[in-house]
């Protein structure tokens, strides 16, 4: 893979999770443009720089050792990539302070560098939280590949921070330079909430939660067909989002032991609040993580999953395939993986390569619910 060569450093970077013969690099032209722009500004060594949504650590690793760097994002895999890429390039682990997007970075910051995220609600919440965290004369710049840079991103920057000046394009990337101005203290519209009838629960959703404003249609197709297990089974909601599958299962199966895991910190924060509201003090494990990578082998009887088909802006089934492998490794013999997926994705064939048996539990014109048995 090519090195990231900028005026700050020359770095060998990897994405997370790692793939053999990785087809994608861990940085792009927007990262290069942001770093080149910052170098032109004669960055003072003692400057406090906040980096938002740094996909795999390209920005924070490059700046480490040149200034005081705080990185914040909503991806556990992004945080893992930052940690591993610091080590891979011989950089100190404490050279960058990481703050999950479910918390507020503490300024004052002299510079803010932003990779515009796919979910603009996340950007909006981050900008709202920056109120009171900018130093006098602070400067801010956001960057993205042009094909992933909606006009609404500039509108949000102008609404919450100050006037925006778009740069010329460079290698299909563009920067939005922002001049911070005094603004009234904003009120965040997040988290949002919606109610379900079956089960009768209200779900809280922080800004970066998938289908924040209502139940996604895949989960809606899955819920009526969740298995009933009246034994004390060990169950994981893999890629739990706001926790709806795990919570619905737990309500119908009072002796089950649940683990809810997601790589989004805001999803985990939402799931924790929703579990507490629906199930009170009932024991549960809810964590941010790389799927079931940390789950011991033969430790689960059942895994529920509505797998994603994208990582950031990249669409594909790599993450879903990896989640299926993790589930197989964590399940006991005879254990079951239940999933919902779009018909056209062909998960039946993929699961058949990993599991002893695969059967269709239910179907709609768009989705299938599948059970795979170890």
UniProtKB/TrEMBL annotation:
Family matches, as SUPFAM superfamilies: S-adenosyl-L-methionine-dependent methyltransferases (SSF53335)
PROSITE patterns named in the record: N6_MTASE
Methyltransferase small domain sequence ranges: 201-371
Predominant location category: cytoplasm
Subcellular localization(s) per the UniProt record: Cytoplasm
Enzyme category, top tier: transferase
Domain of life: Bacteria
Recorded catalytic activity of this chain's protein: guanosine(1835) in 23S rRNA + S-adenosyl-L-methionine = N(2)-methylguanosine(1835) in 23S rRNA + S-adenosyl-L-homocysteine + H(+)
EC number: 2.1.1.174
Keyword annotations: Cytoplasm, Methyltransferase, rRNA processing, S-adenosyl-L-methionine, Transferase
All copies of domain RlmG N-terminal, residue ranges: 2-181
Function per UniProt: Specifically methylates the guanine in position 1835 (m2G1835) of 23S rRNA.
Family per record: Belongs to the methyltransferase superfamily. RlmG family.
Name of the protein described by the UniProt record: Ribosomal RNA large subunit methyltransferase G
Species of provenance: Pseudomonas cuatrocienegasensis
Phylogenetic placement of the source organism: Bacteria, Pseudomonadati, Pseudomonadota, Gammaproteobacteria, Pseudomonadales
Designated gene of the protein: rlmG
